[in-house]
Amino acid sequence: MRDVQFSLPASLALSRRKSGLPDLRKEMRNSGQPEFRQGGNPLPRAVSAEKDLHRTFAANRARGRIALRVGSRGGRTGREDVHEDGSLRVRFPNADPGECEAVIVNTAGGIAGGDRLDLDIAVGPGARLAVCTAAAEKVYRTHGPDSEIAVRLQIAPGAALRWLPQETILFDGARMSRTIDIDLAGDGSLALVESMVFGRAAMGETVAQGALLDRWRVRRDGRLVFADAVRLDGKVAEALAHPAAAGGAGALATVLLAPGDDAIAAAVRALDAGFSGECGVSAWNGIALVRLCARDGAALRRDLLAVFGALGNGAPPRLWMN
Q: 106 and 88 in contact (C-beta within 8 Å)?
């Protein structure tokens, strides 16, 4: 876990003196280096140290970006363009000629306050792509700015994308803002699964306080066909305990299928008695939407695997079985 807590400058100096390490502030004073200035006037040393601390905090925030485009040639899907920047990497473990598999890796080991991740995925005409993550993504608590994630997905005519990341786990005090924007061609295909776990139940964790803003937009041939937003701010566990929200569940998931119809909805409803948690499904406007909530991440994943089996939308990623 990356440490997102910073001691005050005075405490830092005291700890360095106790440990026998040099006092860096004292060394700077004795080195003759210029002072920080604002408007031509020297800043008080405490203010200078605080500003330097903020700059150090900002410089240590993780930035990651992936831009991936795949295309189809002779019935085979392959990479056309791959861009990696910062803490994000993408790997391609399989050799399936029909569907390319991309695995996203966050080398930062989680997401802290002030971090930003950008993912741009484009699936060219006739291509097939499945995207998952190497592990569940962890969003740690912050006393500063929100963690930000921006996802942009483009599915060209005749293309198919399965967006299947593992769970996002929020820790107590986490603050996350995420946007998912999807541009889907009229005859393109999308299967999207996103899961959110509020604390690790096996560790006795809950998210008593925190913030989540999750905004989704889906456009088909440029026309908005689906818009969704979730906002939790403040007492998260108390809000989730409300019967009209999650009824005390600690894990939520959304499955969006396009195209989707009443046959898909009926297949999911037929599983109702076997779910560990609760499930609701609707189909309209050529889209099917499944909502699930369960007591913890393990129960939620079991229910998601059951939904996968009913939909016949291909096998789940092998990494889901780890």
A: yes
